[in-house]
Amino acid sequence: MRRSVMGLHHRRGAVAVMIAVMMPVVLGMAGLGVDLGLWQRETVRLQLAADAAAMGAARLLPAQTASASTLQAAALAEANAVTGGAHIGTLNQQPTVTRAANWSTVSVILSSKADSYLSQVLGIAAPTLSAGATAGAIAKPATACVLALSSTAAQAIAVNNMGSITATGCGIFSDSSSATAIYLNSGKLIAQSIGAVGTVAESNSGGNTMTPAGTSGAAAQANPFASLQAPTPGACSYNNASFTAWKATAYQFTQSANVFCGNTTIGGNSTTDTFQAGVYYVVNGNLTFSNAAVTQAQGVTFVLTGSSPGAFSWTNNSSTPASMSAPTTGTTAGILVWQTCPASGSAPANSMSGGSTMQVSGQFYAPCGALNLSNNAQFTAASGSAMGVVASTLSVVGSAGIAATPNTGSGSASAQIVLLQ
């Protein structure tokens, strides 16, 4: 019995010795597992810091004046802002920053000494972590001041037979996904940017001018007036009226009688027409200006409305430009012509033709209808004014032209900063 007891004591002693010997190893392995998880987390956070650092430095690229030390300081400031300087190990306080020669991109590399707690029991030193990112300044699509809203129409913007659209300081854009979302055939498109959800296409005509080249497959641009609600007209002031008979004095339209129901025609017979500032409604009918001599139309909006709104038509062969401007305040601020959407289906096509020029300040807004210009009609921005077209589709043919300009302060920056890698 004594021998058995002695043997048991010997075995217990051996186990204790083995445990004592193995304990540091066990603790070290456990510590290594803990530290490995920590290092993985620190690596992820270091990459986030590198991304932010690259974006911070890249914001200085457009000016093309930042020194290497300024770029480095901007990168470090963003890295610290994202991480609070913690959970990324011990950050090297001097990030490596490399700028492209043409100021298009900047690359940042961050390194840090990882934190270590229990793995050092095994004599394993904490690693040096590293993460890099590249950011750059790329061309930013200009806000469209000529915009076709149809999502499916072929040739949603069509310029043919010496037609032209120029958008000075803004863009020309089609939301159509068609293979001919924008189609140019013996015409001219000039803007800050030209783009479409579908394809910007052109014929083989040697007479085409497109500056810059169009961008296909771009993201759709939103209807800038989608949130607006057209004002509601009052009782009819006129029914199917024609203001075309010769008069010694001008036809003077005022807000006391500003609701035209049914088809309405204005112009002709050498008469002149004036419009007091305010909103004029045409309910369930067309508004036709036929060789009208409009001598006053400042601060006005023509709203074609009703369950079946009609079309706006301007035909004038006079060489004297017509001048109109939209209100600057109120529910129709900035909109000169507003064709509302019918209860169902699309609205009828609006048109401008003849050799005259309309010089306007304001927007032509027909979200469910087309605007078609032909026969040398010119729809242009008045000097120093904003003018644009937002329609379902747009056609400019036969030497007709649109010359649009952006709203003050609404243009896009020439570049935007993005993370490239």
Please describe what this structure looks like.
This protein is of the alpha/beta class. It has two domains: 2-139, no CATH class; 144-415, no CATH class. It contains two helices and 30 strands. The chain has a six-stranded parallel β-barrel with strand order 5-7-29-27-26-28. Strands 1, 2, 3, 4 and 30 form a five-stranded antiparallel β-sheet that branches. Strand 2 and strand 3 (105-113) form a beta hairpin. Helix 1 (2-58) crosses helix 2. It is elongated and about 105 Å long. The termini are far apart.
Low-confidence residue ranges = 25-29, 409-413
Specify the overall morphology: elongated
- What's the helix count? 2
Helix content: 10-25%
| Overall mean pLDDT | 86
What is the CA–CA distance across the termini? 76 Å
Q: Please give the radius of gyration in angstroms.
A: 35 Å
**Quaternary status:** single chain
Strand and helix map with partners:
Layout (H helix, E strand, L loop, with lengths): L1 H57 L9 H16 L6 E2 L4 E4 L5 E9 L14 E12 L4 E5 L8 E4 L3 E11 L7 E4 L2 E9 L3 E3 L6 E3 L26 E2 L2 E2 L7 E3 L5 E3 L2 E3 L5 E4 L2 E6 L3 E4 L2 E5 L2 E6 L6 E4 L6 E4 L9 E5 L10 E4 L3 E17 L4 E4 L5 E10 L4 E4 L10 E5 L2
Helix pairs in contact: 1-2
